[in-house]
Amino acid sequence: MNWDDIRIFLAVARSGQILAAARRLGVNHATVARRLTALEGDLRTKLFDRSTSGCVLTAKGEQLLVNAERMEAEMLAAQSQIADTNVAISGTVRIGAPDGFGVAFLAPRLGELSRTYPDITVQLVPVPRSFSLSRREADIAITVDRPEHGRLVARKLVDYSLGLYASKTYLAANGTPQAPADLMSHQLVGYVDDLVYSPSLNYAAEIFKEWPARFEIASALGQTEAVRSGAGIGILHTFIAKGDPELEQVLPDKVINRAYWTVSHESTRPLRHVNAVLEFIGGLVARERQIFV
Asked: Residue 245 is part of which domain span?
C-alpha cells in the first residue's frame, strides 16, 4: 500500500467527507476521490459507503483504520527519532476544552506559552462539547471524564470544585438562602438539559433532583455572566467565581467536586510540539492548583 493513499484514507475517515479531507490535506477533492478509489481497488474491498452527505466507514474500513493509525504512529515515531533535537519545537496544536477552563483559565495564560515556545501555534477551541481525538478534531482534549475506550492517553490534571453563587445585588434584593429548601423560592440559573454532553456535568442533581431554572444557558461562562448580572443563583466553578468581587457564595457547605483530565491520542506520543503543550498545561495547573478548590 502507498503511504500517501493511507494518509488520504485517514483524512476521509476522520472528517467524514472527501471535500473536508481535501481541504485538510491541501489537495484537490477530485484527487482525494481518485486515490481513495484506487486504494479500494488495490485492496479489492469497499472502505466507505459514499453519499451526498458524506463517507461512512464500512466494516472493512473500520478494520483498516486500526492498522492505518498504527502505521501513522510508527511514521510519526520515526520522524521524531530522526529529527534534529536542536531544532526549535514548532507546529500547530489544537486544544479542545470546556469553556470555563479554556477561556477563564487557559486563554489568559497563553502568552507565557508563546514566550516559552514562540514557534508553536495554538488553536484553542473552548466550547461545551466533547471532541473526537481519533478523528483529529483536537490534538489535546481537556475532559471532565476519564475515557474508557479507544487508543487514548489520559492523565488527571486537577480536582476542582463548584458552589452556589449569587450577585451581591441579587442577595440584597431577595435575601440569602439559609438551607437548600430555600432555593425553591429564588430564581435559579442552570444549563440546558438536552445539551449536557456528559452525566458528570449534571451538577444540579447533587442539590436537587430537578433544578427549576428560570434561565437555562448552555455554557459555564454564560451562566457566570447571568449570575453576575443578578439573574439568580447558579452553580459556578469556584476558580472563576471566588475571585469576582460582585459574587458571593451561598450555602458554602454545598460543594460539588469534579476533575479535569488531559487526553491525547496514542499516535501523538512522539510529537514534540504536542507533548510540549501537554507539559505546559500540566505545569500551569500544578503551579496554581490552589485556585481550583
From this structure: 159-258
Look up the pTM and report it: 0.75
Of residues 208 and 262, the one with the higher pLDDT is: 262
- Tens of pLDDT, residues 231-280: 999 999 999 999 899 999 999 999 999 999 999 988 888 788 899 999 99
Single out the residue in 54, 82, 110 at which a domain terminates: 82
As a whole number of angstroms, the distance between CA 291 and CA 41 comes to 57
Q: Tell me, what CATH number does 214's domain have? A: 3.40.190.10
Same domain as 168, residue 38: no
Residue 189 is which amino acid? V
Cα separation of 268 and 199, whole Å? 28
Chain-centroid distance of CA 191 in Å reads: 18
Which among 149, 12, 9 has a CA at the least distance from the CA of 67?
A: 9
CB 101 within 8 A of CB 115: no
Q: With beta carbons less than 8 A apart as the criterion, state whether 96 and 142 touch.
A: yes
Cβ–Cβ under 8 Å, residues 220 and 228: no
Rounded CA-CA distance 217/215 in Å is 6
Does 185 share its domain with 247?
Answer: yes
Which CATH number belongs to the domain containing residue 36 in this structure? 1.10.10.10
Are 153 and 199 within one domain?
no
Other Cβ atoms closer than 10 A to 37: 12
Query: d(Cα 37, Cα 20) in Å, to the nearest integer?
Result: 17
Beta bridge partners of 236: 163
Residues 191 and 146 in one domain: no
